[in-house]
Specification:
The protein is of the alpha+beta class and 284 residues long. 60% of the residues lie in helices and 8% in strands. The chain is elongated, with a radius of gyration of 24 Å.
């Protein structure tokens, strides 16, 4: 008997469905009515929609079929299946969602369309899939020309699509499309990394042991001791690493200040902290 889906797998499919709905809504609401082609296969389909009134979703789906056939071998079966489902869902939702344009201002369309598109694609990626298109083309090109990274090839393809829109529609729409690309990329990062940001605190102090004990007892957080050597005196002493939530940062600094006012503390953002005391390390 086949095993039923795990909780993580259900969550992944939920991310994919939600991402396709949100990403698809960006087209009838903001992108298509304002002739904004935000790169990729759907960007090309947007240009064709402007020129020939072809439906964006159906056109992008048809264009994705040969790319899937070519790029299937470079992907795992699970990833390929999820990506195929995501591509079909996104294409269907773009054409079938009964949504009317929300604005005829290209600037607003590029900004809010980029937000929705980025959030949608971010959830799809979080679900362990892609929406097909140029990322598969980039993988194929990379396999034949490994000197160019997948990211560089993707960027080049998206730029070509945006420039195509500028020549075929109007150059100002290419500029709006670049705004959309920037906004959507930032939103993808935000969805993938999460809205909450933990802090990784590196503490260098001669009283490292007292600080270590105080952090564990008063904050209830684990610490890691990293071998380090002072650059001025050349003496060996551990550096204390402690990851805390943003709300706990003030208490951590107060503890370090109390134990050793001369301590050196380096604090950086820590995205996607997984494990004991934070979010569970789940299967993607």
């Amino acid at each position: 008997m086949k095993k039923s889906l795990t909780k993580e797998q259900w969550l992944a499919w939920g991310y994919i469905l939600l991402g396709c709905l949100v990403g698809a809504a960006s087209y009838p609401w903001f992108l298509t009515p304002n002739h904004i082609a935000p790169g990729g296969i759907t960007g090309i389909a947007t240009v064709l929609n402007y020129l020939f009134q072809w439906p964006v979703g159906t056109t992008s789906l048809i264009m994705n079929i040969p790319l899937f056939l070519i790029g299937y071998r470079s992907m795992g079966k699970s990833f390929a299946f999820r990506s195929l489902v995501a591509t079909v869902l996104l294409s269907l939702f773009i054409d079938l969602l009964p949504l009317k344009p929300m604005t005829d201002d290209p600037l607003l369309g590029s900004i809010f369309g980029g937000v929705l598109l980025g959030v949608g694609l971010g959830f799809v990626l979080k679900g362990g899939a892609t929406t097909g298109g140029t990322d598969m083309a980039a993988r194929v090109v990379h396999n034949h020309i490994p000197y160019f990274s997948v990211g560089l090839i993707l960027f080049a393809i998206d730029c070509l699509v945006v420039l195509l829109a500028g020549f075929q529609i109007e150059i100002k729409y290419a500029l709006y499309a670049f705004i959309c690309l920037y906004v959507s990329s930032k939103m993808i990062d935000m969805v993938m990394e999460g809205l909450t940001t933990e802090k990784a605190c590196y503490i260098s102090s001669l009283k490292w042991d007292a600080i270590r004990l105080a952090l564990m007892e008063e904050l209830g957080r684990g610490v890691t001791l990293i071998s380090a050597k002072g650059g001025f005196r050349g003496e060996d002493r551990p550096m204390v690493l402690c990851v805390v939530s943003a709300q706990e940062l003030g208490r951590l600094k107060a503890i370090v200040r109390r134990e050793d006012p001369a301590a050196f503390v380096y604090i950086s953002d820590a995205h996607e902290v997984l494990g004991e005391g934070f979010r569970r390390l789940e299967e993607e």
